[in-house]
Amino acid sequence: MKNLCQAATFEQTIRLQISHQLGAGPLLVPLLEDLRVPHIVNEFCSNRSDVDTGTIVTGMVLNRLMAPKPLYRIEEWMQETAIPHLLSTSADKFNDEQTG
User: How many CA atoms lie within 13 A of 29 on its CB side?
Assistant: First the structure.
């Protein structure tokens, strides 16, 4: 019985594991910050959103550099990557209403 409980706990733990693609994100995010991309964008563009425009632009630039596809469904792409963690925001902030 004890082994059965351990197996169930182990199986539940495995199901909770979430993997994200790192790609070049850990290298590109600091580079864009060193180039002051978010700061420069925020200096000239403001919004009333939960996420500042500089962060949104940084996410879009990362999308173009890491997955050069049309700029839509960024939220779905972000959910598969570690970018939201690197930008300290959630992937749902990069939906079409935010980036459009």
Answer: 16
pTM of the predicted model as reported, rounded to 2 decimal places: 0.72
Positive or negative torsion for Cα 62, 40, 47, 86: positive
Q: What is the pLDDT of residues 22-63, one digit of tens each?
A: 788 889 999 999 999 999 999 998 787 788 899 989 998 998
Q: Return d(Cα 16, Cα 31) in angstroms, integer.
A: 32
Distance CA 100, CA 98 (A): 6
Domain boundaries, the chain: 23-99
C-beta of residue 35 within 8 angstroms of C-beta of residue 54:
no
